[in-house]
Amino acid sequence: MQNPYRHFATFKHTNKQIMQYWKKLSSAEQDKRITKALEQNVNYSLGISLGVPASTLDDKVFYDKASFLKDAPLLRTYVHNPNHIGCHTLGESEPFFKGTQEIEREVIELLSVDMLCAQEESCDGYIAAGGTEANLQAIWVYRNYFQKEFKASAESIALLASEDTHYSIAKASNVFGIDFFPVKVAFDSRKILKEEVDKIVATAIEKGKKYFIIIANMATTMFGSVDDLSVYTDAMEKFAAPFKLHVDGAFGGFIYPVSDPGNSLSFANTQVSSITLDAHKMLQAPYGTGVFLIRKGLMQYVYTQEAQYVNGMDITLSGSRSGANAIAVWMILQTYGYYDWQEKIETLLKRTDWCCNALRERGVRYFRHPKMNIIAIRATDIEKTIAEKYFLVPDTHHDNPNWYKIVVMDHVGIEQLKSFIMDLK
What we know:
There is one protein chain. With 425 residues, this protein is α/β, with parallel strands linked by helices. The protein has helices spanning 27-40, 73-80, 98-115, 131-150, 168-176, 194-206, 229-238, 256-259, 323-361, 384-389, 414-423, and strands at 123-128, 157-162, 179-183, 211-217, 243-249, 272-278, 290-295, 366-367, 374-378, 393-394, 403-407. Strand 2 (157-162), helix 5 and strand 3 form a beta-alpha-beta unit.
């Protein structure tokens, strides 16, 4: 049995100024790299890939001779239709798509090391179908980990997260048969209440829970609030409870590490075992593009031994998945490079600052984490017609909402925000 207390370690972080992998590449350089990758993938036109249950997109529907494809490497990738089943950062993978798999490995290493402060080659991961899948993947891994290493039953494992946590955690509770214990937060500050964590953990233990899977938020979906890990880890130490800690950065993962590089929700913190990112939000990748990152030595707990016909076997919830989504993430990251991405985030935060100042001048109450681009406005301080006019999202569609949120993204400029402010009474 492994030592259940080995997680407790001092967090250290050094803000790296030199990016190991996150470089800015021109369109021509990207095209050359992707073209080479596609050439290394299976070529169906040769007619010798008789056993591969795949092909290019149907050319009767998706015309693959269009002239514009030569200048559109992502669209060419979609036409080539690479299947990235499995996890390509460990073991073997299907050799038919080795070229584009290598680009996916580059994405995982770039995000782990340059964005989230991991040591080189210390993480596994894959491009998932979204943040929901990535969160479920983490809980699947840790359920199996506790079952194998501690002979735990599902009934003895608890999910622990704040009440502001994404609904995917409740979904995981249902899928994996693990009880979910949500923790109350303060209404105005959205901070997790330490006394509530202690109370919830004590209640869970009374109900027979011995092992904990903790979900910490790197920006909640509704509020952009960021969790303090110590309220969880202090409780685990107090009750001497073995745990695994997963960071849900589905919204904040491409913002918060840049806006607050000294934060504790990264792989520099040895208590963090895995992180979810969501490229189809702030990164503006195609929908269905999440990222799952996890320390090496853990992903193997979910090997699907029955997938013998898959080289390397499957190890992901989604199974077959589009390699084109990995290419899309790689292209966006290489188009910006770290410093242009940093400048973009700073611009969005300044727009958010402007809006918050304008709301404050009008006496409108709101919550906003200073390093995030979400503003949650008290529903009582804004007319419903205004909220609907500007497509503000409520915290509930079924009852009277308590909050409406604004998300300051690329398309939300000062002019749009000024129009909204002018409409407020």
